[in-house]
């Protein structure tokens, strides 16, 4: 924390933590090993109190499963001190499509078709889109709806996305010569 705080004084550090859900039951099914949302919010609070710019990434947003939590996640993150926010809609490249469909069958069989159809809606009829401009946010009316929900919730939470740009101005080369990798 002390190193990050010192770097932050020189605009050389910022932190972004992801929060998928505030629902403990859903989190146990979606991500059983990572830190809980409460622990991540506590980390945001500690970083913010140390004057380290911190943002939250609501990711992955899974239409039909957790998109309704966007306002609550952003509100909790803002209350903890986050000053920036972003989001990513779930992408399913390669074999992830089959793994995710199997996961839905196991954990949410009654929602499986809805979730997969909504993902196809934001991915141009597919479960993944690799085009740079749309692969993280999706496209179409449902992706636009998620974006609007996110933006309204971000503004309502008071998250302005006004973090300072990172700078290398305080970087100093340690001197000496660098060893060759050969």
Structure notes:
The chain has helices at 2-9, 24-30, 37-49, 70-80, 96-107, 112-122, 141-157; strands at 15-19, 54-61, 84-89. It has a three-stranded parallel β-sheet with strand order 1-2-3, covered by helices on one side. The model has no long low-confidence stretch (mean pLDDT 92). The longest helix is centred in the last third of the chain and has 17 residues, at 141-157. Helix 3 runs parallel beside helix 4 (70-80) and helix 4 (70-80) packs parallel to helix 7. With 182 residues, the protein is mainly alpha-helical. The protein starts with a helix and ends in a 25-residue tail after the last helix.
Key features of this structure:
single chain, 182 residues, mainly alpha, Transcription Regulator spoIIAA, 3-stranded parallel beta sheet
Would you kindly provide a brief summary of this structure?
By secondary structure, this protein is mainly alpha-helical.
């Amino acid at each position: 924390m002390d190193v990050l705080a010192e770097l932050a004084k020189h605009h050389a550090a910022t932190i972004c933590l992801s929060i998928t859900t505030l629902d403990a039951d859903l989190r146990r099914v979606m991500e059983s090993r990572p830190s809980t949302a409460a622990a991540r919010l506590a980390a945001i609070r500690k970083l913010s109190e140390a004057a380290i710019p911190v943002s939250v990434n609501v990711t992955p947003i899974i239409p039909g499963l957790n998109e309704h939590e966007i306002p609550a996640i952003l509100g909790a993150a803002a209350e903890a001190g986050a000053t920036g926010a972003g989001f990513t809609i779930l992408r399913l490249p390669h074999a992830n499509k089959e793994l995710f469909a199997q996961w839905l069958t196991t954990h949410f069989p009654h929602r499986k078709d809805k979730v997969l159809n909504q993902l196809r809606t934001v991915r141009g009829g597919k479960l993944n889109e690799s085009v740079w401009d749309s692969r993280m946010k999706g496209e179409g009316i449902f992706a636009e709806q998620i974006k609007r929900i996110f933006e309204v919730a971000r503004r309502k939470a008071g998250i302005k996305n006004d973090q300072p740009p990172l700078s290398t101005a305080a970087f100093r080369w340690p001197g000496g010569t660098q060893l060759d990798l050969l």
